[in-house]
Design a protein that fits this description.
about 60% helix
């Protein structure tokens, strides 16, 4: 919740592109937000999706999820601060969400 609030205070600038970066990193088209994507990666064997996973975790699993989130954020912020890397991420994200080209008749 702290990150969500801090991001809102920064008009969405802190995490702008984070969801897209996570989608590209995963290599699968999805409409889920960063919270669900991080929890799915951090807790792959816990049933549920997004925050629902948290009801089935213990404190150690939650700690590991937070550590993964911080690690992913650090990695993302390096990409976000590199204009070309961020542009590449958005290009890859767009390609994942674009229909495949059709052959001309």
């Amino acid at each position: 919740m702290f990150l969500i609030g801090f991001n809102e205070a920064r008009s969405g600038g802190l995490l702008r592109g984070f969801t897209e970066w996570l989608v590209v990193r995963k290599g699968e088209c999805t409409s889920f937000g960063w919270q669900a994507l991080v929890l799915d990666e951090a807790l792959p064997h816990i049933e549920g999706w997004g925050r629902n996973k948290l009801s089935n975790t213990d404190s150690q699993q939650e700690k590991e999820a937070v550590q993964l989130l911080l690690s992913l954020l650090h990695e993302f912020l390096t990409v976000r601060d590199d204009v070309m890397a961020l542009a590449s991420t958005y290009g890859q994200y767009h390609a994942l969400h674009s229909p495949p080209p059709t052959e001309a008749a």
